[in-house]
Amino acid sequence: MKAPWRRVRSFAKINLALEVLGVRQDGYHELRTLFQSIDLHDDLALRVTRTGRVKVRCDHPLVPTDETNLAVRAARDLLEFARRPEGLEIDIQKRIPVAGGLGGGSSNAATVLMTLDRVLKLGLGSLGLQALARRLGADVPYFLHGGTALGLARGDEVYPLARQLRAHVVLVDPKRPVKTAAVFRRLDARLTPRENSRSIFYFVSSDLEGEAGWRSLTNDLEQAALEEAPDLEAAVSRIRGVLSEAGARHMALSGSGSTYFGLFSESRRAQKAAAALRAHGFRALRCRTLTLDQYRRGVQRG
Ligand code: C5P
Q: Is residue 104 a part of any domain in this protein?
């Protein structure tokens, strides 16, 4: 008899802000970022098998189904680490835009780690899964926590914040995948490094409250991402115009792009912004932020 399918949700993130502080010895970049979970999610179904093999299916043509799929690597690494003979079937229904700066692949990997840990009763928890998550990618450890969190080092040193954000979010998917590594390479090619900013630290410590705090938050990857995808530049300027007109509290590119987002305190304004963006021909999605607790409960409520 086969084990039953376990259904879970794999949530996306946005980066409320992202500062690049320099290049590290390992070639990665030293970052300071504010991660935020949103309720946009992929649907995952997992089934433990006796085959010892890990297989994945996905309904999205751009997602690889071989061993380069991060969810497959996550399952293999964990089964090997725990010295378990089982295998796993993974079925992914993609809703998070691919290569959009929303962490879809990293989220899928972390969700597989957390679910296998529970199903196989390994008792590792987020602390015990940390090292495996780090090896899979810089964003993966964040997804073991979720909510509003500060990310340091490669973005893989994660500190959930006491102040958990609640806001309405409008995402604009320009349907233009951008490769993260290429954006970082462009950033390196710049002659003048950016001055060290402390906006995120001020924001986190509540020294910069209210509008001033939000205004000081930026994404250092935005310019490089627009250079990597020049056709995005005109789109982004129109998107910013519409979001600002509708009263967005904050707007930025998420990660290395290409998804742009606006944050709103009121649902009515978010609704208005999404409608206006659609009227301009953009694909706009409305969603909400998730706190640490909402994230934890939400993953298991597949
Ligand atoms: O860790 P992950 O595979 O998700 O990162 C994708 C790419 O983004 C890396 O290969 C690297 O080029 C770049 N990156 C970086 N510094 C970071 C995170 C990612 O240079 N802190």
A: yes
Q: What is the pLDDT of residue 16?
A: 96
Claim to verify: residue 124 and residue 14 sit in the same structural domain? yes
Domain presence at residue 27: yes
Find out whether the beta carbon of 110 lies less than 6 Å from any atom of ligand 1: no
Percent of the chain with pLDDT over 70: 96
**What number is the average pLDDT over the span 2-17?**
95
184 Ramachandran zone, left/alpha/beta (phi>0; psi -120 to 50)? alpha
State the catalytic residues.
13, 139
Cα–Cα nearest to 242, from 276, 265, 279: 276
With contact defined as beta carbons under 8 Å apart, do 95 and 41 qualify? yes
Are 180 and 118 in the same domain? no
Grade residue 291 by pLDDT with cuts at 50, 70 and 90: very high
CA dihedral (127, 128, 130, 131) positive or negative: positive
Residue 55 CA to ligand 1 center (angstroms) comes to 25
Q: How sure is the predictor about 239, in pLDDT bands with cuts at 50, 70 and 90?
A: very high
Is 28 near ligand 1, meaning CB less than 6 Å away? yes
| Nearest atom of ligand 1 to the alpha carbon of 106 | 4
Work out whether the CA dihedral 60, 56, 118, 149 comes out positive or negative: negative
What pLDDT is stored for residue 193 in this prediction?
63
Q: Are residues 151 and 13 in the same domain?
A: yes
CA of 27 to the centre of ligand 1 (A): 9
| Domain identity same for 20 and 137 | yes
For the CA of 20, the closest atom of ligand 1 is 21
Q: Does the Cβ of 178 fall within 6 Å of ligand 1?
A: no
Instruction: Give the count of domains, the chain.
Output: 2
pLDDT digits (tens, 9 = 90+) for 107-151: 999 999 999 999 999 999 999 999 999 999 999 999 999 999 999
CA 71/CA 128 separation, integer angstroms:
18
| 147 and 13 within one domain | yes
Residue that finishes a domain, picked among 161, 194, 229 = 161
Q: List the residue whose alpha carbon is closest to atom 21 of ligand 1.
A: 154
Which residue is closest in CA terms to ligand 1's atom 3?
137
Model-wide pTM > 0.85: yes
